[in-house]
Design a protein that fits this description.
6-stranded parallel beta sheet, alpha/beta, globular
Length: 376
C-alpha cells in the first residue's frame, strides 16, 4: 500500500510531504499495491494513551477480557492504537483479577483484530494520599508495599508499566528505590512539598501523573511537586487537555515549561467516554456526566469523558498548541516514557503500520489504519 500527498509526521517531529509505504502489517521503505491519495490530510502515528480507565460503559478495573476488548476496540476506532489503561484504588484481590486478565489478554492477542495494543497496566492507586485521593476510593488506600506490587506485577506477566505513589507516605522512598527497576514510578495524588518531591525524584521517580490535578498548585513560597518536576529533565509529566481539567492558558504554559519531549498527553477517560450524558461509575463510585464533565456526587472531578484523540485536537484547536507539538506529546513522549517506542509512536519502517489521516483545518479523522489495515 502507498499513501501519497499527505503531510507526514516524521521521526524528527515535523511534517513533511512524502509517501508512506505499508507492506503487510508494517511500515516499509517501499511497497506496491493499493495507492491512497491523502491530499489535504496530515498523516500521524496512531496515538499512545498511557492513562485511561474505560469507555463505552466498560471499566478496566472490571478485570474481564470483555471489558479489555471493549476498551481496545473503541480506542483503535478513535485512532488510539496503543494503550496502557489504569486501575483504581481497590482491594488487592480486585487488582489481582485485573492483572491476571491482562496477562491472559496479552498472551492471546490477535494482531489481525480491530483492537489497539494493550501494552500494559498503569497502576494508579492504592499507594496514594487520603487528602488528595480525588475519585480514588479512600476505603482501600494502602501505604506503599513493594511485596504487594510485586505480586500484582508477577501475576500480570510483569506488565505494570507505571506505578503511582504519594512520596510523603510511610515507606515511599524505600518503595521507589526497589520498584524503579521493575516499572516507571510516578508521583501522584499527593500532598508532597518541594523537598519531598525532589527526594522522590532523586530516588528514582521519573513521572508525574495528571499534572496539576490531585496535587498542590504552584505557590511562590511553597513550590511543591510541579517545580520539582520541571527542573529535572529526566521527569515526564502527564497532561489532560480535555478542556475541563486544565484551562487553555495553563496548557500553553506547560508546553513552554516542560516542552513536548517531556509532556505525555493523556485522556484519563472513564466508562462514559463515547456515550451520552448520564450516571456511570469509576472504581465502583457513582459518577455523573454532563458534556465533557464527569464528577462524583460531591462535585469532585472523576476522570474524563474524552478520548485522547479529542484531547489532542482540543490542545490544538482551543489551546493553540502547534499540531506538531501536540502530536509529539500524544505519540512519541508517551511511547518513550513507558518503553514501547521501539514499536509504537512513529511512522518508521519496520514498526506496525498504525496511522491516522486528519483533515487539514478541522482535524477531523479521515481514516484509521491499524497494523496495515484500514479500519475507519
Amino acid at each position: 500500500m502507498i499513501i501519497k500527498n499527505a503531510d507526514v509526521f516524521t521521526e524528527e517531529g515535523i511534517f513533511k510531504k512524502r509517501e508512506v509505504f505499508i507492506d503487510g502489517d508494517r511500515f516499509a521503505e517501499s511497497a506496491g499495491g493499493e495507492t491512497i491519495d491523502a491530499y489535504g490530510c496530515y498523516a500521524i502515528p496512531g496515538l499512545v494513551d498511557i492513562h485511561l480507565h474505560g469507555c463505552r460503559n466498560v471499566d478496566f478495573s472490571d478485570g474481564t477480557l470483555d471489558s479489555i476488548r471493549g476498551i481496545t476496540t473503541y480506542e483503535a476506532s478513535q485512532g488510539v492504537t496503543t494503550v496502557v489503561p489504569a486501575t483504581m484504588t481497590l482491594p488487592e484481590e480486585t487488582l489481582m483479577k485485573v492483572s491476571k486478565a491482562v496477562k491472559e489478554y496479552r498472551e492471546n492477542f490477535n494482531p489481525a483484530s480491530d483492537e489497539a495494543e494493550l501494552f500494559g497496566i498503569n497502576m494508579e492507586g492504592p499507594f496514594v494520599s487520603k487528602e488528595k485521593c480525588g475519585a480514588q476510593n479512600p476505603a482501600y488506600l494502602h501505604d506503599p508495599d513493594y511485596e504487594m506490587f510485586s505480586r500484582l506485577n508477577e501475576a500480570s506477566g510483569k506488565a505494570i508499566r507505571l506505578c503511582d505513589i504519594a512520596p510523603e507516605l510511610p515507606g515511599a522512598m524505600d518503595f521507589i528505590e526497589k520498584a524503579k527497576k521493575d516499572t516507571v514510578v510516578s508521583i501522584a495524588h499527593t500532598t508532597a512539598d518541594y523537598e519531598t518531591a525532589r527526594e522522590a525524584i532523586e530516588k528514582g521517580a521519573s513521572h508525574v501523573t495528571h499534572l496539576y490535578n490531585a496535587m498542590p498548585g504552584i505557590h511562590h513560597r511553597k513550590p511543591g511537586v510541579i517545580p520539582a518536576a520541571a527542573e529535572n529533565d529526566g521527569v515526564t509529566v502527564e497532561l489532560i487537555a480535555d478542556g475541563i481539567h486544565i484551562e487553555s492558558s495553563v496548557i500553553r504554559l506547560t508546553f513552554r515549561l516542560f516542552g513536548r519531549e517531556r509532556i505525555a498527553l493523556i485522556s484519563d477517560s472513564m466508562m462514559a467516554t463515547g456515550l451520552p450524558d448520564g450516571e456511570y461509575a469509576l472504581g465502583g463510585q457513582p459518577v455523573t456526566v454532563k458534556g465533557k464533565l464527569a464528577t462524583l456526587h460531591d462535585g469532585t472531578i472523576a476522570g474524563s469523558a474524552t478520548n485522547l484523540m479529542d484531547c489532542m485536537k482540543n490542545a490544538v484547536l482551543s489551546a493553540g498548541i502547534p499540531l506538531y507539538e501536540a502530536v509529539y506529546a500524544a505519540t512519541v513522549t508517551p511511547a518513550k516514557s513507558v518503553g514501547c517506542y521501539d514499536h509504537s509512536g512513529s511512522i518508521t519502517p519496520g514498526k506496525p503500520a498504525s496511522l491516522v489521516l486528519l483533515k487539514k483545518g478541522t482535524l477531523e479523522t479521515e481514516a484509521v489504519f491499524l497494523r496495515g489495515r484500514r479500519i475507519i
